[in-house]
Amino acid sequence: MGFTCRNFISKWRYWIIPLVVFLYALAVLVFVPLFLVKSVQDGFNKREQEILIAGVFVGLAIPISLWEILQHVIHYTEPKLQKHIIRILWMVPIYAINAWLVLLYPKESIYMDSVRECYEAYVIYNFMKFLLNYLNAEMDLEANLEVKPQVKHIFPLCCLSDWEMGREFVHICKHGILQYTVVRPLTTAISVICEITGVYGEGEFKGNVAYPYLLAANNLSQFVAMYCLVLFYRATATELRPMKPLPKFLCIKAVVFFSFFQGVLIDILVYSGLIFHNTNTTDDELGVSKRLQNFLICIEMCMAAVAHHYSFSHKQYINEDSSQNCCQAFLAMWDVSDVQHDIQEHLGIVSSSISRRIRGRSMYNFARGSDESANLVSRPSTSAPTDMGLYQNDDEELFMKYGAVDNVRNSAGNVDKV
After folding, report:
1. What confidence tens digit (pLDDT) does each residue in 347-374 have?
2. What transmembrane ranges does the database entry give (predicted)?
3. Are the C-beta atoms of residues 103 and 294 closer than 8 Å to each other?
4. What distance in Å separates the CA atoms of residue 217 and residue 68, rounded to the nearest whole number?
5. What CATH number does the domain located at 45-328 have?
6. Residues with Cβ < 8 Å from 122, sequence gap 6 or more?
7. Is 401 exposed, middle or buried (0-12, 13-18, 19+ CB in 10 A)?
8. Model pTM score
9. Within the chain, which residue ranges are assigned CATH 1.20.1070?
10. With the C-alpha atoms ordered 323, 328, 332, 337, is the resulting torsion angle positive or negative?
11. How far apart are CA 399 and CA 206, in angstroms?
């Protein structure tokens, strides 16, 4: 009997998908009739019609995403890449279920929206890590960028000084994206506190409520993250070409950034009166702007699920010789130790950078030259000493710890100049 059980478990790849499909179909077949019966008894009002239509799209989006997630779990042959892909793919079910539950339980919308907002920051982080892991597996990314042409800033930040190609460029892009992972959950927590205390004022653009200020903070943070992501893509487009990055970039921007600005636009249109709000409606517990935003998200997640299915396909990771355990693959995507490490690194670098700038020192200690390619080629083959004597102060030691300073390269650059 024990052997039969072990044999059955070892063939999990063959039965896990039919089992999930069966459970999902069973849940749909039980829930939908119950909802329809209750709606008919209550008179099937406009709000319930919205919930039903939105639920149909959510019901189509979830199995498409779960299918792709399961396929990645089954063919978990590239953990450093697929762990982040699976986390990204979870975005569609989380967004869809969250938006639908907000329509269903409007009074708890502020708490459910907090989950979605925090996860959208998590998705940006995982997309950044996916790109970095892919590039670092193929090459020495920083050394490769050092010999590439300078990437110029684009409008509206074209007046900024260029970020030196190489380590400085990678680190500024990385931490420019990572700051959104810190700012978004923080502003979300503040919005929940403000809602509880009655000073949030969602959808109101007034000076005595917190909503416009938190909106401005989120907008600025998201713009910085998106800008860094675009610059990073421009710098590495050639290296990323084998993995077809453009559809992936568009999927992330469409779901995260478009849904955010869509919500802002709807709030502005409702506040200005361009979208009519009937204040006499008794069943409008949620507000027309939030109802419209969540209804549209339910529909959009169905399209996003299809786009993710093709953009983050599992097919390139199929390897029949791999013996990856499903439990290990499942547990790996919930291991957030990498997130904790990167946030600690980000906070350490930001705090030290502020300290250094107060004292009039630059953040990065790079040997600059008019010809980066020539400096790299002419660098001596002998390595400079790497003992602790190279650190002139505690800040430089901290930056070396976090990978933001390369004193060895500075020493070699100075030898070249001499």
Report:
1. 777 677 667 667 655 555 444 333 333 3
2. 12-36, 51-73, 85-105, 210-233, 254-274, 294-312
3. yes
4. 34
5. 1.20.1070
6. 87, 181, 339
7. middle
8. 0.72
9. 45-328
10. negative
11. 42
